Amino acid sequence: PSTILALLRWDVEDTGGYPITHFTAQYRLKHSPADQPPDNWHRVIPGRISPSASQIDVYKLDPNSTYIFEVWASNDLGEGEVVQVEATTQHNNEEIELGRHLLAGADTFDTRYWVAAVAVVMGTLVVLALGTCYALYRECHLPLSKSNSSPLSSPGSPQQETTKV
Question: DSSP string spanning 40-61?
């Protein structure tokens, strides 16, 4: 996955008297040696760019590469003049910068703070677990009431008495 992108911007100078229906943009890698065939054109997504747009992002480009971009407008008269721009992407040093940022202050880092923080969190979890276990134990082991009523009978229901002779 590449995070290298280009931002294409344009201004409309002349519409030919008809409103623009959409813009189209495409790009390809530029090869230095003239004996190599040029790369295929890749359409920028969406294929039909809104007529009110004046810029679009082009994603998934390679670092340190030169690209040729083309943009043109379309209206009821057809396609307008193709404007071509050449641009070179920069070196992708994002991962290097991220690593440098994550390791900032690592030489002065004291692990005792992390040990203390983990101990406090673990202690809190143990206390909560013990409290939950105690509450469940108390709920499950409540003594039954000492009346003659069966736990299945309700207070208003008739009960059968059995006597032994």
Answer: PPEEPSSSSB-TT--EEEE-SP
The answer to whether 66 touches 84, Cβ cutoff 8 Å, is no
Could you read off the pLDDT of 62-71 as tens digits, one per residue? 888 899 999 9
Contact at 8 Å (CB) between 77 and 16?
yes
Using only C-alpha atoms, the chain has a radius of gyration, in whole angstroms, of: 37
Domain co-membership, 94 together with 118: no
Residues 57 and 120 in one domain: no
CA distance 107 to 83: 53
Q: Which of 57, 65, 58 is nearest to 89 (CA)?
A: 65
Q: Does residue 42 share a domain with residue 65?
A: yes
For the stretch 41-69, what's the b/e string if a residue is b when 16 or more beta carbons lie within 10 angstroms of its beta carbon? eeebeeeebebeeeebebeebeeeeebbb
Closest CA to 72 of 110, 105, 43, 36: 43
What number of residues does the chain have? 165
Q: Residue 93 maps to which CATH number? A: 2.60.40.10
Sort residue 16 into left (φ over 0), alpha (ψ -120 to 50) or beta.
left
95: amino acid identity, one letter: E
Global pTM exceeds 0.70: no
Single-letter residue type at 56: I
